[in-house]
């Protein structure tokens, strides 16, 4: 599938081998250790940013390899994207209210 | 290019020997069926039941409002009445109405599929619907619930001792029922299309259902978790929505309306799909600007997620975000306008006949236009201050939901009835019903716009006497409306046995569902069709029928 | 029939011609490929709903963390970071074994499949076990929101741990713990469901249902399991890590 | 003389006498609101007529009898663009107009006279600065900007005066404000428009707009002796606030003199304006309103002071321009909190005043029964 289209039904079952899985597992465990370690350092405003960044990397790894999205049709990729997009809409649009409340009477 | 309309004479039409109705017999063959057509019938029956239940509550409400005094029922009874009316009509009728019945029945056939992608899940969603219904009814029987269908906190969490959790449970389950329906539709639309059925050949009915399904899948879970939080708050009083414990009741509003505004589009979009089919069929013309209409559905679905806070303009949201949400609300109004104009333009140079579905469709266009435009009143900040929480709101969303969606639903039922049952309903009577419904509706809800601007608050059990005249009008209209809804119930049932045999394509419509026998066989298509024509290609239909004639004779 | 039609017909024929009918191909699907794609796409859509389902909770968490930062800090500091980290590792490991299970199914390696499924079950149970320990801790410390909630040991989030948090702020630790129990509880519920499904899969796998070429059930359960893993990957920093240090 | 059904006759009479399309235009904002309303009506009418004409004429011109052959038209980008852009433009006009109106209504002028409103299931309590208390009624002078500072004691309520075209949600745990300028003397409807429980439809009242001198007479006639600020002063003393907020150098609490509407720096560097909401918040949740340079030692008064009591305190602190009053009260603070709390309202509401103080913290579903039978407006 050199050029996956939205309707690409034939994402040929690309079989991911134990080697890749092992590598991903290793990476995930290292990242876990890393994020826990960093948690003991006080980075001020950055500590949540760093922690969430690491979490996001871990998530992307899991999605791409454990969940085979890297090898799936573009439709699946779009679906995943849509999910997170809507999630962000919920968060940002709601927070936009709470944040801007502090800006005064109006 | 032009086509001459040739309706087949229905004298020589006969019922097919084998159809989904008589392929198997016995209750079990229905309750355990995987056939989307039979599930659609199950839905049709249960939804009709809940519609008339909710309608009964509406009747009682109108009766109470006949007089300014709180004299017919006690206040809490009245509150329980409108709460039940809201919950049943929204979650058990409007949301599943067109998708679960008509959509379930014709969507796979339109795409040239043998069934929905997941028949078992489809059946499951019906059972979930029934369980939800049972919960709701038991909440009613156990003594009712008086939160209003919006479950507003902290009222619902701390200040009521009615069966809030039972009702919330019902809504929760109903939500999952509609999630599964939407999931099924999306997968079917993507994966089950017949060869040659490209995205721009699928009927607009499918497009609008696709858009609505996206909303169902992405919006409903938020409602689910919100209701879970309400239940927990009620049980343990943790105070996540309780200001005295540091919670924020507005958070509930945000989460609730994040679903419940898109829910409005979940309700209306499938109706719009029906209207596209009907208008095109009875003007023998391809819908004007197919792509525009198709994309306007998707646009509505996408924008629908960005506007929820316009339900909270006066509830203490930050004025900045009120500004943003108002702007986005104006944007979402545009696609609906596009649709209306395109439908109207479809009639141009058509060859129009006025069968019952067409009358309902006209009714839809009129009432939905009013409903939509009054939406602009409420979407614009300043006007919203005066109009919100009054009868203007009530009138507005009844024009959209009942005037829009219910008209479309009836149009659809009348349009596909011959396909579903293989029989025609009495034409004259049904036309009468359509007209009666329209008149009754206007009479019921138009006065409420005036009441709203006069300032009569919604959900009022008693009201100042000077509002009585308009309320009496409204109640009078409600009776007419009730008759308008009972009529189809009666003659449809009658037609099941005595109706004229319809034949496979009584309207000479182009959808794939009309090219197979009616009622259809269980597997829909003996062999999967290969689509080589655009949607609404009456030229192709004419050639096809010609071809058939020559082969027969 | 115009040429275009014919062309499509032929193309259709081509699609039809390798049209074997294995037992697991449902009647309404044309090809195995179509069924496989449809089912996995359906699974993905279901996971979408799951994202939004947890989304509501994350929203609440974000809001109240911003409002009652100090309470969240001191409450978060009472959580056992060690147990949390262990659990994360356990869950990631279980994700790995699940992925291996999928691989073995594709390789039609029954023994491997059985092993990895059992391993997944085991790790899942370990996770739940550790969670139970944590919950019990909270119970003994009276950190379960509600009547018995005590604000005794919430200290002011300065680096010296002895200053008690002002009572009105300490009360808001209840909101943290409510969210903590709501989120981890919801996640644990998903784990329990997953494990019970795993047992069923294990049984059917022993009847080698998935090692004869029909792997999509295993694949899709894998998706579910990995999703549950992802949820935890976010719950862990949110609840245990990011609120350990006061901003001022 | 009516020769047909008397009921119908009455109905007809009602119709002819009481039929109205608009509520009275009794406030300065009302004409603007109505103008906007007419503009929106005009748009809707045009749109409706347009659609109606299209559908109507086409159905007649192209009905099957006249036009047996449908002519196929794919669509027209130009036309579609037209009916995309024109509605969009109109809606944008509505948006801007509406926004302007919104900010006009929700931004009170600085010199407005302030009246406090407390909503509870199911009654409206109005508290005038002079200490006059009303239930389900509000007396206001005409031709004077009036600002309402409103709060709910239990659930969401909504304060709506159709004749003034103003409405604002009354929120538990937070002040919300609305303002208006009555232009015509008269008595107008006051509604609670947010569904708030069993007797929602009984949570109504009268807005009495009076000419200035009548209003002055009324104020003089219905005073309960103590002004809100005076009540606040007693409460301030009896709660022992003055022991820390003494205003002396080295006091453990910040100096409250002239703090109202001033910019204060919070712990953590955030700077906010000390408005009513801030004052109320600092009494209930001191730690979230912790001012820089002070230790978090202030106890919370959550559930100990009723909303009325809080209003008194806020009103008192707003009025503080120097500390000598505080020093005086330091000497004669001999009130029990309950008394002080009760003095927050006129004596005849003392009973539910006290329950009101206790309601917020232990509000559980089961207590709502007692509420259901609680004091009702009639």
Give a verbal description of the structure:
The complex is a heterotetramer of chains A (106), B (553), C (248) and D (378). Chain A is an all-alpha fold. Chain A has helices spanning 18-39, 46-66, 74-101. In chain A, helix 1 packs antiparallel against helix 2 (46-66). The N and C termini of chain A lie far apart (54 Å). The model of chain A is unreliable at 1-12 (pLDDT under 50). Chain C starts with a helix and ends in a 7-residue tail after the last helix. Chain C is built from 8 helices and no strands. Chain C has one domain (35-241): Up-down Bundle (Four Helix Bundle (Hemerythrin (Met), subunit A)). Chain C has 248 residues and is mostly helical. Chain C has helices at residues 3-17, 32-67, 69-77, 81-106, 110-140, 167-171, 173-206, 216-241. Chain D is of the alpha+beta class. Chain D contains 11 helices and 13 strands. In chain D, helix 2 runs antiparallel to helix 3 (77-106). The radius of gyration of chain D is 28 Å and the shape is elongated. Chains in contact: A-B, A-C, A-D, B-C, B-D, C-D. Chains A and D meet through loops of A and loops of D. Strand 1 of chain B pairs antiparallel with strand 1 (69-71) of chain D, so a sheet runs across the interface.
Describe the structure concisely for a colleague.
Chain B is an all-alpha fold. Chain B is built from 17 helices and one strand.
Question: How does the SSE layout of this entry go?
Answer:
The complex is a heterotetramer of chains A (106), B (553), C (248) and D (378).
Chain A: H1 18-39, H2 46-66, H3 74-101
Helix pairs in contact in A: 1-2
Chain B: E1 2-4, H1 27-31, H2 36-64, H3 75-94, H4 97-110, H5 119-141, H6 155-158, H7 164-191, H8 204-236, H9 249-282, H10 290-303, H11 319-346, H12 356-379, H13 381-387, H14 391-421, H15 427-454, H16 468-498, H17 538-552
Helix pairs in contact in B: 2-3, 2-4, 2-5, 2-16, 3-5, 4-7, 4-9, 4-14, 5-7, 7-8, 8-9, 8-10, 9-12, 9-14, 10-11, 11-12, 12-14, 12-15, 14-15, 15-16
Chain D: H1 6-18, H2 30-61, E1 69-71, H3 77-106, E2 113-120, E3 123-127, E4 133-135, E5 137-141, E6 145-152, E7 157-161, E8 166-170, E9 176-181, E10 186-192, E11 205-210, H4 212-221, H5 228-238, E12 263-265, E13 271-273, H6 276-284, H7 307-319, H8 324-331, H9 337-343, H10 350-359, H11 367-372
Parallel strand pairs in D: 2-6, 5-11
Antiparallel strand pairs in D: 2-3, 3-4, 6-9, 7-8, 7-10, 10-11, 12-13
Helix pairs in contact in D: 2-3, 5-7, 5-9, 6-7, 9-10
């Amino acid at each position: 599938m050199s050029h996956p289209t939205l309707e690409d039904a034939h994402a040929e079952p690309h079989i991911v081998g134990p080697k890749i899985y092992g590598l991903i597992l290793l990476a995930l465990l290292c990242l876990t250790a890393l994020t826990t370690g960093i948690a003991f350092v006080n980075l001020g405003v950055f500590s949540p940013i760093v922690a969430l960044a690491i979490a996001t990397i871990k998530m992307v790894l899991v999605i791409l390899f454990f969940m085979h999205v890297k090898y799936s049709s573009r439709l699946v990729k779009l679906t995943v994207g849509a999910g997170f997009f809507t999630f962000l809409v919920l968060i940002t649009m709601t927070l936009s209210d709470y944040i801007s409340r502090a800006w005064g009477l109006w | 290019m032009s086509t001459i309309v040739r309706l087949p004479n229905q004298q020589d039409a006969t019922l097919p020997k084998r159809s989904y109705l008589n392929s198997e017999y016995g209750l079990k063959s229905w309750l355990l069926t995987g056939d989307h057509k039979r599930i659609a019938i199950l839905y049709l029956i249960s939804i009709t039941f809940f519609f008339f239940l909710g309608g009964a509550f509406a009747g009682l409400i109108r009766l109470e409002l006949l007089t300014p005094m709180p004299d017919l029922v006690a206040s809490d009874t009245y509150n329980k009445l409108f709460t039940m009316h809201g919950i049943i009509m929204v979650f058990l009728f409007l949301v599943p109405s067109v998708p679960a019945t008509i959509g379930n029945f014709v969507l796979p056939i339109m795409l040239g599929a043998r069934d929905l992608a997941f028949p078992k899940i489809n059946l499951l969603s019906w059972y979930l619907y029934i369980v939800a219904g049972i919960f709701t009814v038991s909440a009613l029987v156990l003594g009712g619930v008086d939160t209003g269908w919006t479950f507003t906190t902290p009222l619902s969490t701390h200040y009521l001792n009615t069966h809030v959790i039972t009702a919330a449970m019902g809504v929760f389950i109903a939500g999952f029922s509609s999630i599964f329906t939407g999931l099924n539709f999306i997968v079917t639309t993507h994966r089950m299309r017949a060869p040659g059925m490209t995205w721009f050949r699928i009927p607009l009915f499918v497009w609008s259902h696709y858009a609505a399904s996206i909303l169902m899948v992405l919006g409903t879970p938020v409602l689910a978790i919100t209701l879970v939080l309400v239940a927990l708050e009620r049980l343990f009083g943790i105070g996540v929505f309780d200001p005295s414990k540091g919670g924020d009741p507005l958070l509930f509003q945000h989460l609730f309306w994040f679903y419940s505004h898109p829910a409005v589009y979940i309700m209306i979009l499938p109706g719009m799909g029906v209207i596209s089919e009907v208008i095109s069929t009875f003007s023998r013309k391809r819908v004007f600007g197919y792509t525009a209409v198709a994309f306007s559905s998707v646009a509505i679905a996408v924008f629908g997620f960005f506007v929820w806070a316009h339900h909270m303009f006066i509830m203490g949201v930050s004025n900045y975000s009120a500004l943003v949400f108002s702007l986005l609300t104006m944007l979402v109004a545009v696609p609906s306008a596009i649709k209306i104009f395109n439908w109207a333009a479809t009639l141009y140079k058509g060859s129009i006949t006025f069968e019952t579905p067409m009358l309902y469709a006209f009714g839809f266009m009129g009432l939905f236009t009013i409903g939509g435009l009054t939406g602009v009143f409420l979407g614009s900040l300043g006007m919203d201050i005066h109009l919100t929480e009054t009868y203007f709101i009530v009138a507005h969303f009844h024009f959209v939901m009942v005037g829009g969606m219910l008209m479309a639903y009836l149009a659809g039922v009348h349009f596909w009835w011959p396909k579903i049952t293989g029989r025609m309903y009495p034409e004259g009577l049904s036309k009468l019903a359509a007209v009666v419904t329209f008149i009754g509706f206007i009479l019921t809800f138009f006065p409420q716009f005036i009441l709203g601007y006069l300032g009569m608050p919604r959900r009022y059990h008693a009201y100042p006497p000077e509002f009585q005249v308009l309320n009496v009008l409204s109640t009078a209209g409600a009776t007419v409306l009730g008759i308008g809804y009972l009529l189809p119930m009666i003659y449809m049932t009658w037609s099941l046995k005595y109706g004229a045999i319809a034949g496979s394509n009584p309207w000479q419509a182009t959808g794939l569902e009309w090219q197979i026998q009616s009622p259809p066989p269980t597997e829909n298509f003996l062999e999967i069709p290969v689509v080589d024509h655009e949607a609404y290609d009456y030229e192709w239909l004419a050639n096809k029928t010609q071809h058939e004639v020559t082969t027969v004779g | 029939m115009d040429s275009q039609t014919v062309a499509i017909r032929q193309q259709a024929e081509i699609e039809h011609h390798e049209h074997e009918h294995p037992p697991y191909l449902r009647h309404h699907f044309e090809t195995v490929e179509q069924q496989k794609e449809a089912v996995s796409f359906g699974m993905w859509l279901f996971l979408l709903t799951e994202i939004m389902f947890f989304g509501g909770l994350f929203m609440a968490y974000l809001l109240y963390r911003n409002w009652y930062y100090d309470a969240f800090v001191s409450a978060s500091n009472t959580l056992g970071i060690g147990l949390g980290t262990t659990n994360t590792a356990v869950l990631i490991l279980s994700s790995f074994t699940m992925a291996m299970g999928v691989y073995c199914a594709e390789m039609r390696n029954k023994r491997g499949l059985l092993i990895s499924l059992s391993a997944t079950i085991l790790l899942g149970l370990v996770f739940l076990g550790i969670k139970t320990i944590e919950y019990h801790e909270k119970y003994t410390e009276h950190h379960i929101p509600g009547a018995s909630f005590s604000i005794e040991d919430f200290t002011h989030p300065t680096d010296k741990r002895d200053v008690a948090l002002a009572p009105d702020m300490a009360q808001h630790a209840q909101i943290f713990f409510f969210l903590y129990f709501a989120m981890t509880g919801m996640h644990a519920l998903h784990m329990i469901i997953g494990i019970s499904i795993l047992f069923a899969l294990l049984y059917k796998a022993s009847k080698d249902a998935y090692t004869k070429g029909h792997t999509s059930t295993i694949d899709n359960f894998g998706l579910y399991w990995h999703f549950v893993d992802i949820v935890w990957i976010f719950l862990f920093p949110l609840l245990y890590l990011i609120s350990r240090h006061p901003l001022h | 003389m009516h020769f047909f059904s008397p009921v119908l006759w009455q109905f007809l009479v009602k119709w002819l006498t009481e039929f109205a399309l608009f509520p009275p235009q009794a406030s300065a904002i009302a004409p603007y609101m109505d103008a906007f309303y007419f503009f929106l009506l005009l748009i809707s009418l045009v749109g409706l007529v347009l659609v109606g004409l299209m559908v109507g004429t086409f159905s007649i011109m192209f009905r099957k009898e006249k036009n047996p052959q449908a002519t196929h038209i794919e669509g027209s980008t130009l036309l579609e663009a037209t009916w995309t852009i024109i509605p969009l433009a109109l809606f944008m006009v509505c948006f801007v107009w509406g926004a302007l109106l919104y900010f006009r209504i929700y931004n009170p002028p600085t010199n407005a006279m302030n009246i406090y409103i407390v909503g509870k299931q199911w009654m409206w309590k109005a508290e005038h600065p002079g200490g006059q208390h009303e239930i389900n009624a509000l007396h206001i002078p005409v031709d004077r900007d009036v600002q309402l500072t409103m709060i709910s004691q239990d659930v969401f309520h909504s304060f709506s005066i159709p004749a003034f075209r103003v409405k604002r949600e009354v929120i538990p745990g937070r002040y919300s404000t609305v303002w208006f300028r009555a232009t015509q003397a008269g008595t107008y409807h006051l509604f609670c428009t947010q569904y708030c429980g069993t007797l929602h439809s009984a949570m109504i009242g009268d807005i009495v707009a009076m000419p200035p001198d009548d209003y002055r007479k009324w104020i003089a006639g219905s005073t309960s002796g103590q002004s809100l600020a005076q009540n606040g002063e007693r409460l301030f003393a009896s709660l022992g606030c003055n022991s820390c907020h003494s205003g002396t150098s080295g006091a453990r609490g910040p100096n409250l003199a002239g703090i109202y509407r001033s910019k204060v720096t919070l712990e953590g560097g955030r700077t906010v304006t000390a408005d009513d909401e801030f004052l109320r918040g600092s009494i209930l949740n001191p730690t979230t309103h912790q001012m820089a340079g002070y230790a978090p030692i202030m106890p919370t008064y959550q559930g100990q002071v009723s909303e009325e009591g809080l209003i008194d305190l806020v009103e008192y602190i707003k009025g503080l321009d120097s500390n000598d009053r505080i020093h005086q009260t330091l000497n004669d603070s001999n009130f029990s909190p309950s008394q002080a709390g009760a003095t927050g309202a006129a004596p005849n509401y003392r009973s539910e005043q006290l329950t009101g103080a206790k309601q917020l913290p232990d509000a559980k579903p089961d207590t709502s029964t007692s509420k259901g039978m609680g004091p009702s407006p009639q």
